[in-house]
Specification:
The complex is a heterodimer. Chain A is about 45% helix and about 15% strand. Chain A is α+β, with helices and mostly antiparallel strands. Helix content of chain B is about 20%, strand content about 25%. In chain B, a hairpin with a 2-residue loop joins strand 10 and strand 11. The chains are: A alpha+beta, B alpha+beta.
Chain lengths: ~450, ~280
């Protein structure tokens, strides 16, 4: 953490040495006195500062800071404890996922985009696949079972994502129990993911045309157990937080952003619904059959951090309702197809659970290696070359836990995406940080940023 | 909009029925809207403009204008990127044209017509403003001349019958084959009031990559425009602080342009070498 003192109060000539910033660009002179905080005696630093009597300080909070949700850098200009100006510095986790997707086939794109917003992988996969399916013009052919499974995975994912938000948000204000129980429940969700997809994160499970694997045995039992567990333990969050005076004292009125602000800044998700506006793409522009589920859009009447917390809490209950309906449907769908019948699009490989875990399906290998030459050719062509997608562009947004997540997918008729751009809600919502923080205390910045729930993997992509 | 061959040099409209299936005007966002949503969408503005169109249902909108002819963007030969005598695959003679969905002409069906007509009322010279309308897979794209972008966007946001109050973001696309309009900036606008979504597309030549900024109308476009500048080098005139956002400030080049290499190193495994992704075989 380095701090720069502005030139307004810097005595200038008397400054003994350090106008050089060891983290700054070489040769460039800093604007004022530079304090570099690298584990030395804090008192020394404080007394050095007190001696100089600077009032305006620019603090770099992050990019390595436990309260900034990953590698987010907050540049805060402060007078005392009050933020006068705040800006975000992002890009520290840019991995070029969109560019990389242009060099892999359409199915492999899923493997990349699932890693963007790593707390909501199924949403990334689904919005990308919905875009590809629209370009392929196979939206009507997606099997019902695939849609129900997508919805179930997305809603489980919404719960796990909201749990992380609430847990880390709690931890940052010292509510450690909220953190421990939050991660305890999230672990249960990840267990379900692991059983169904083979992985706890970065699944690559939703595929253009359907989903990658059928449900394994015991999956629905496991989901039922999870629902029962959540119904028992979800009230704990409300009991810990909802009326907790310390919790409310830290959250109420913090990070205020009303409807006009949300509209101008393009904010969606819980911050928008906290203004009382029931904008939820699952209801307004249903996809994956959301119109056939019974659930309510959650809103709140205070557009602050507390309202967003309450919305996330209620949304987890609604997600549980949807998951229950999914389980009911899936029970009747055993053996139904999970991917489009078009063998040109459906991913040919299959996995199965053996004694040593999830791996190649022996059945499938036997089929392509011993029984059918055509199946082998088909497998080879699809795995190496992939399928072609007609030229055009599509944008099918979904309601991710953080807001509108959409993939602008462009095809030139080839076997690879010509361009895939993700409109990530974390990226857009983070623009609201200055308007929510300026004028507040530095301790409220942490709460305000946490209430937006930015995930830097999604912001930087 | 009729086909206007003069709009850009590559508009070689070809009579071909392949690859241009245009679905009916399904209100975008889903394939089967439930009755509740449909109801909401159809209670559009009580306006003189196109009230009949607003009432057009999903089924009724199947009566479409004649199928637009696709636009050939480029022609590619061969299959694996191998040419000449080195090509033993037999695929070297393949010729494939890249045909993007072509321009549609009114009536488009559904609410699309009322939006289009309303724009026509608000912007007198709308044939200069909107150079092309493309309807593809149930999504409508307005190709906008860049000098009129801010004017159009202002109307789209403020007019009560349009009210596209929400901008999802800006996405850049680099079409090296689209001579004279290599760089495209694509805006997705959402009308929450009417539950409609449209797409605006502005194309500018590589040599003069200037697009007016829409930050004054949609502050949310701030970071999106910075990202598009960062990745494609499109300069958004009037942006309050157009700097790089994801790449380091001193980064040379614009990484998501097609002429920018992906990078990567060969991977060696058990004596065999796998080339980096950008050097692997492509299927053109």
């Amino acid at each position: 953490m380095t701090s720069t003192v502005g030139d307004t109060t810097a005595p200038g000539a008397e400054a003994p040495q350090p106008t050089e910033d060891m983290y700054g660009v070489g040769g460039e002179e800093a604007e004022g006195h530079v304090y570099t905080v690298t584990g030395q005696d804090w008192d020394q630093l404080v007394s050095e500062h007190a001696e100089r009597g600077d009032e305006r300080i620019v603090v770099n909070m992050g990019p390595q800071h436990p309260s900034t949700h990953g590698v987010l850098r907050l540049i805060l200009e402060m007078e005392g404890e009050t933020i006068t100006e705040a800006r975000c510095g992002i890009g520290y986790l840019h991995t070029g996922i969109e560019k990389n997707m242009e060099f892999r086939n359409w199915t492999q794109g899923v493997t990349f985009c699932t890693r963007m917003d790593y707390l909501s992988p199924f949403f990334n996969e689904t919005t990308y696949c919905l875009g590809v399916e629209r370009l392929l013009d196979i939206e009507d052919q997606i099997p019902d079972k695939a849609n129900v499974m997508r919805v179930m995975m997305m809603e489980l994912n919404r719960i796990s994502s909201h749990l992380v938000c609430i847990a880390t948000g709690g931890m940052e204000i010292g509510a450690l129990t909220v953190m421990t129980i939050g991660f305890r429940e999230r672990e249960k969700v990840l267990d379900v993911f692991e059983l169904i997809t083979g992985l706890r994160m970065n699944h690559g499970y939703v595929r253009p045309g359907g989903v990658g694997q059928d449900l394994p045995l015991r999956a629905l039992t496991k989901v039922r157990e999870f629902i029962a567990w959540m119904r028992k333990h979800l009230p704990e969050y409300a009991a810990f937080c909802n009326e907790n005076p310390i919790f409310k004292g830290r959250l109420c009125g913090i990070g205020y952003l009303d409807l006009a602000g949300c509209m101008a800044l393009g904010i969606t998700g819980p911050p928008l619904r906290a203004t009382g506006y029931d904008w939820d793409l699952r209801k307004k522009q249903p996809y994956c059959g959301y119109e056939s589920y019974d659930f309510e859009v959650q809103t709140w009447d205070t557009p602050d951090a507390y309202g967003r917390f309450r919305i996330r809490l209620s949304e987890m209950w609604e997600s549980l309702k949807i998951i229950e309906q999914c389980v009911e449907r899936l029970e009747k769908m055993e053996g139904d197809p999970i991917i489009v019948p078009d063998a040109k699009i459906a991913w040919p490989a299959r996995l199965s659970i053996g004694s040593d875990g999830l791996g190649n399906s022996n059945e499938h290998i036997k089929h392509i290696m011993g029984e059918s030459m055509e199946a082998l050719i088909h497998h080879f062509k699809l795995v190496t070359e992939g399928f072609r997608v007609p030229p055009g562009q599509a944008y099918v947004p979904v309601e991710s836990p953080r807001g509108e997540l959409g993939a602008h997918v462009v095809s030139d008729g080839g076997t690879r995406p010509f361009r895939a751009h993700f409109r990530d809600p974390s990226f857009t919502n983070l623009q609201a940080m200055p308007v929510m923080c300026e004028g507040s205390m530095v301790s409220d910045v942490v709460v305000a940023v946490a209430s937006l729930d930015p995930v830097m993997g999604g912001v930087d992509r | 909009m009729t086909d206007e061959p003069g709009t850009s040099p590559e508009n070689l409209h070809k009579e071909s029925d392949a690859n241009a299936p245009v679905k009916g005007a399904v209100p975008e966002g889903e394939s089967e809207p439930d009755s509740e949503t449909k109801q909401e969408r159809l209670t559009g503005p009580e306006s003189g403009i196109g009230s009949a169109d607003v009432e057009a249902t999903t089924g009724g909108a199947e009566i479409m204008a004649p199928e637009p002819s696709p636009e050939v963007l480029a022609t590619r030969k061969g299959m694996f990127g191998v040419t000449g005598t080195g090509d033993t695959s037999g695929y070297g003679g393949l010729t494939r044209t890249i045909e993007f969905p072509g321009a549609s002409s009114p009536p488009f069906g559904g609410w699309w017509d009322s939006v289009y007509e309303r724009i026509g009322q608000l912007v007198p010279n709308y044939s200069d403003v909107i150079t092309k309308v493309v309807i593809h897979r149930g999504e409508i794209t307005f190709h906008v001349a860049r000098e009129h972008l801010t004017e159009l966007v202002q109307h789209l946001r403020d007019d009560a019958y349009l009210r596209f109050e929400f901008c999802s973001g800006v996405s850049g696309v680099h079409y090296p084959a689209d001579t004279g309009g290599e760089l495209h900036a694509v805006y997705h606008l959402q009308s929450m009031t009417h539950n409609r979504r449209i797409r605006l597309e502005v194309s500018v030549p590589d040599a003069d990559p200037h697009v007016p900024s829409v930050v004054a109308m949609y502050p949310t476009a701030d970071w999106h425009e910075r990202e598009t500048y960062d990745m494609f080098g499109i300069i958004f005139d009037g942006h309050p602080a157009l700097t790089r956002i994801l790449m380091p400030d001193d980064w040379p080049g614009h990484p998501q342009r097609k002429d920018y290499p992906l990078g990567g190193i060969p991977v060696e495994y058990k004596g065999a070498t796998i080339p980096p992704p950008e050097q692997r075989r492509t299927y053109s």
